[in-house]
Amino acid sequence: MTIEIADSGITDGQKKQIAGLRELFATTNRRRLIVCDCLTLLAEREEGTTNGLIPFLETMIDPAASVVGVYHTDQATLHDRSYHPVPLVLVDSAATAVIVVRSFEHILEERRARGRSREEPAFGVEQHIQGIIQGVNANGLEGLTMRVEHRQRTGKAIRESYYLLIRPHTSPPLTKLPGKIQEFITLLDDHPLLRPEFAAEVEKIREREENATFDTGLTDRQRRDRDGVVLPYYDAQSGMSDGGRILYDMGSEDDFDDEEDEV
Amino acid sequence: MSTCKRVPTALEPYLSLPPELSLILVTGTIACTPTWLLSRFAGATLSQPIDDSTPDEGEARKPETAVVLVSWMRDERFWKTEIRRTTGLDVVKAESQHRFAFVDCLQAPIPTTDLSQQDSVSAGTDQVFAHINATLTKFSSTSTTPRRILLILDQPDVLTGTGTFGWHNLHGITQKLRKQVYATVINCSADLPFISVSAAAVKDARTGSRTATLHTELERHTANYRVQQAHIATFVMACRELATGAAKDVSGVLRVTRGGGIYNVLREDPEWVDAFKETEVLYLVGRDGNVKVFERGASESG
């Protein structure tokens, strides 16, 4: 069932709904999953001196319940009293798993920039450009990446990046590669577009598909012709076995200097 | 029909009626006000012909389209002139057919609220919602045929800017309004001072710093509202200035991106999502109200 939290915090009616649910659950020993699609909004609602997250989680959590909540990191919290943790830190400390979701296209752009020793690009609000809230290629339709940190009871945390498939791929670079993603979830590094052995091929397909309206490759004949071109001073580069030397023809008005010009 | 000609073909897919319960976020900046885009949303929706024929037995009548325009920044005269001028549509006729209604929030009193008092805020949100909802209910009761209402909210963010509501209160109002209609368009300005705190928040989340707290509460309310709408919008249309400065033959850049709400549509209408393309184009608003849309580097056309 869906409980919509009203604008003015959790109303008495909703509290009753939640209490009713809890009673129902108390009689059975079924495990349950509670999904909250916007913790950020909940955090803004004041409940006494604290933010609305704590009372909500308190009413929801017990040993048989797991809560999955979405927190938007691009929204600044209003709760910034100096000695209180901000809501994000609060839920982060309490969480047994943290999943950071990002656009796969953005990850790809970042890796390409890194591969060419360029500055990593920023997206959306982080671009600091007037009028831009959202970057292009956000909310990909084929899949997205997740950085997962799973905190185990032993105190050990496992961190791994995954690729989550939303629906089968149809766009060019992927459909032309030998590796295909079939699984719902794969390791991010196993994604064909990120595998180093495909890098050159991906680059070629991308250039052909996206950038140019003409073919940037060379035909065999063009390559042969290009190899046949004799560059100026090409012959000067051969037959110089005695190391680096300045080739200089003296003009008629040049004086020969014994100390400096030792040819 | 003359109205069809005035919608640039490149923009047609974005201006036609989106899937049900969609939210379209339109943003602009101080030099690129997207009123031309909003009037075209109204124009494209109203230019769909009314089905006058009596439906056959057992066949449902094709739903009518209608527009309710709510403005916090501009008055009725401006909008009527703008829509007539830019789309060639007879707004007065549409109004008499009950296909167009204007809700004036510019001259309506803004409620006085005390943000620390929950009751005072609730009363304020109820007042704003009731003011708009009165028109919506009257509007839908005047017609016997089912109708698809496109609700256009022109700069509701004024209400966070004046300190009347917190961003979550305003979000509550717009969400409630969205449920009353077929689809919604929200226009907000997105100049750098309105959104820069969001960038600080992203950085804070990554590094554990608290730089966002250096910004004022007003900035946070302002930015959070916009970002929240982008999170739930089906798509976002953002107008902004050219990075290289003002130009005589370019008014601005229009970027269309998928919002977080696209995944809701993906489940119900995958064909629509497949046809939807992210794009970035340049546009030129002429003195006669005509808009030309063209690719970067291309000369102006259609």
From TrEMBL, chain A:
Residues 242-263 are annotated as: Disordered. One of its GO terms (cellular component) is cytosol. One of its GO terms (biological process) is tRNA wobble uridine modification. One of its GO terms (molecular function) is tRNA binding. It is found in: Cytoplasm; Nucleus. Pathway: tRNA modification; 5-methoxycarbonylmethyl-2-thiouridine-tRNA biosynthesis. Keywords: Cytoplasm, Nucleus, tRNA processing. Residues 251-263 have a biased composition (Acidic residues). Belongs to the ELP5 family. This is Elongator complex protein 5. It comes from Extremus antarcticus.
From TrEMBL, chain B:
CDD domains: Elp6. It comes from the Eukaryota. One of its GO terms (cellular component) is elongator holoenzyme complex. Coiled coil: none annotated. Pathway: tRNA modification; 5-methoxycarbonylmethyl-2-thiouridine-tRNA biosynthesis. One of its GO terms (biological process) is tRNA wobble uridine modification. Belongs to the ELP6 family. This is Uncharacterized protein. It comes from Extremus antarcticus. The lineage of its organism: Eukaryota, Fungi, Dikarya, Ascomycota, Pezizomycotina.
